[in-house]
Amino acid sequence: MANQTRDQKLEGLLSSAAREFALRGYDRTSMRDLARASGVSLAGVYYYVQSKEELLFLIQSRNFEAVIAGMRDALRGVTNPVERLQRFIDNHLDYFATHMAEMKVLSREADALEGEFLQRVNDMKRLYTRALMDVLADIEKTHGPAHANRRVAAYSLFGMMNWIYTWYDPLGDVGVELLSQNICRLFLGGYVGLPVSETALSRGGAG
Amino acid sequence: MANQTRDQKLEGLLSSAAREFALRGYDRTSMRDLARASGVSLAGVYYYVQSKEELLFLIQSRNFEAVIAGMRDALRGVTNPVERLQRFIDNHLDYFATHMAEMKVLSREADALEGEFLQRVNDMKRLYTRALMDVLADIEKTHGPAHANRRVAAYSLFGMMNWIYTWYDPLGDVGVELLSQNICRLFLGGYVGLPVSETALSRGGAG
DNA sequence: GTTGGAGTTGAACGAGCGTTCGAAGCCCCA
DNA sequence: TGGGGCTTCGAACGCTCGTTCAACTCCAAC
Fold it and tell me: Nearest by CB to A190, which of B164, B168, B189?
């Protein structure tokens, strides 16, 4: 509480803002709510951020960047297409489960942004979607024709993964590993008829 | 335009309100926007509806009721568990695709309601989720143990189906039949390892 | 031709919104 | 001790919001 750098304070503001946005929704949350939740005055918020919309943009873009960076790390050096997909899913769900508020805001407030803010987030979405579809294409090369249209399959997988903000409780009786394993199986089994074994789904050694 | 009953005018109001809510979001759409879009004065809206929240409730509950009624019709007399699931998915996606605005509002503005309005919609959700999980339980009885936790599977399927409000264009090159077929395959293949054939997925004869 | 209720309206209300700004507090260095 | 730049704040601005209400039009019934 005592001596934080400007960056640390912005970080804290973004974190409590994400919590509030996740709770009440972006539009129903006022700057006064955010000020109260983060322990500064209303005007104080504007010292760290230019507008409410920038606040939302920072939450969305920073977390999306982290997801993308995590995916790159998770896929680096992995050549087996199925394992690449498993790691893609694993990274997505893992980050989602450990940043529920932020990812709920990213999923639900998708079109609250406008102009350049919106464009920059949409660019990330395109990049990320492209990455998944490339993985799917690789899988098709090694496992024969898929049982579903690739684009439909990609968006269906995103649907399974992003929809969790409406029901999943990371502290409940379904752990992230089980969740990730289940979604991996559901998707892989349906997409290329792969009956994924227990062991094949456990996470590999080196990240 | 000339002589409509009160009910028809309310219907028209709900329809244009759904379109506006889907476009801009519930909170960002003002009662003045709705008045303009439906061609009455601001005060005129309040002759048909008690509040903005009731407007949202009516959109959500009426359409959810229609989805549930459609499901009951689709499942009536069908005993094969897999076919029951296919019809469940088919009904959901078909209604979604023909009522994109309304279903987007139902999916996205899930917690904009409060109090009794919220409770009544949530009751419908519980009922509908229960119905799907019962179908899944039947499938497990006839096709052996599932490859995923039943609850996770159910919510994943809802995720695939509801997420389409973020990307699906009913007028695009992916028709509803193909969409439904793809999602059926993805789910069934992953849930019980069923390689669903072309013909088995075509819709049955009598409804 | 008058009555009365259904439908519609313009104008206003109070409240809350995002944002701004001048001033005050704070703390390090001279 | 004093100056100066970060940091914080109370108070206000202009605007839009959801909602209300008295007054109006219209038309069928008497």
Answer: B189
Determine the distance between B33 (CA) and D22 (C1') in angstroms: 24
Give the whole-angstrom CA distance, residue B47 versus residue B6: 10
Q: Return the exposure string of A89-112: e unless at least 16 CB atoms fall within 10 Å of the residue's CB, then b.
A: bbbbbbbbbebbbbbbbbbbbbeb
Other beta carbons within 10 Å of B133: 15
CA distance B55 to A165: 25
**Chain segment A66-95, per-residue pLDDT in tens:** 999 999 999 999 999 999 999 999 999 999
Distance B40 CA to C14 C1' (A): 24
Residues comprising chain A, all counted: 207
pLDDT, tens digit (0-9, with 9 covering 90-100), for A23-50? 999 999 999 999 999 999 999 999 999 9
Which stretches of chain B drop beneath a pLDDT of 50?
1-2, 198-207
CB contact under 8 Å between B191 and A187, yes or no, is no
